[in-house]
């Protein structure tokens, strides 16, 4: 079993993988490569689900981790964290609806919601990595 101390890094890696898969999936659908798009989006969903599981396990055991930065970086951190947190909560139902519509071959309705889901999901994935970096890599080390 992976020690708890490694979970934040695993979470950042899963968020990074999700962002890359989302970008690749978008490029694939733009070029008409539907099967490759589908594989990327299902993989992005899987990595995001693994992230959420790992994130919840970590914070259930560790609790909240305070940000130690001071000055202007503190304001920047909390601005990113607040937008990330709000959109992370909103993205879960959007992803589930978008995925369900695609799996049911309801592509007209899938495209309508995917136009919102994709950029928000991408933002949440990227800002998750930024929050990790600011919280665990930028601050003082024990």
* Helix count from the secondary structure assignment: 4
Q: What is the CA-based Rg, rounded?
A: 16 Å
The percentage helix is over 70%
Strand content: under 5%
| Integer average pLDDT | 95
Please give the oligomerization state of what you see: single chain
Globular, elongated, flat, extended or rod-shaped: what is the shape? Answer: elongated
Weakly predicted, low-confidence segments: none
How are helices and strands ordered from N to C? HHHH
Judged by helices, strands and strand pairing, the structural class is: mainly alpha
How does this structure look, described?
With 142 residues, this protein is mainly α. The protein has one domain (4-137). The protein has helices at 7-30, 34-62, 72-103, 107-137. Helix 1 runs antiparallel to helix 2 and helix 3 runs antiparallel to helix 4. The radius of gyration is 16 Å and the shape is elongated. The mean pLDDT is 95.
Spell out the blueprint of helices and strands.
Layout (H helix, E strand, L loop, with lengths): L6 H24 L3 H29 L9 H32 L3 H31 L5
Helix pairs in contact: 1-2, 1-4, 3-4
Summarize the structure.
It contains 4 helices and no strands.
Offer a few descriptive terms.
142 residues, mainly alpha, 4 helices, elongated
């Amino acid at each position: 079993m992976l020690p708890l101390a490694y979970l934040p890094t695993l979470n950042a890696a899963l968020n990074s993988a999700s962002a890359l898969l989302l970008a690749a999936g978008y490029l694939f659908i733009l070029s008409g490569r539907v099967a490759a798009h589908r594989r990327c989006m299902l993989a992005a969903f899987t990595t995001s689900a693994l992230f959420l599981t790992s994130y919840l396990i970590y914070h259930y055991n560790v609790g909240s981790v305070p940000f130690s930065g001071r000055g202007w970086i503190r304001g920047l951190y909390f601005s990113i964290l607040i937008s990330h947190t709000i959109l992370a909560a909103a993205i879960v139902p959007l992803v589930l609806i978008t995925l369900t519509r695609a799996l049911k071959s309801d592509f007209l309705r899938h495209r309508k919601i995917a136009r919102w889901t994709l950029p928000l999901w991408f933002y949440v994935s990227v800002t998750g990595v930024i929050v990790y970096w600011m919280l665990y890599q930028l601050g003082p080390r024990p």
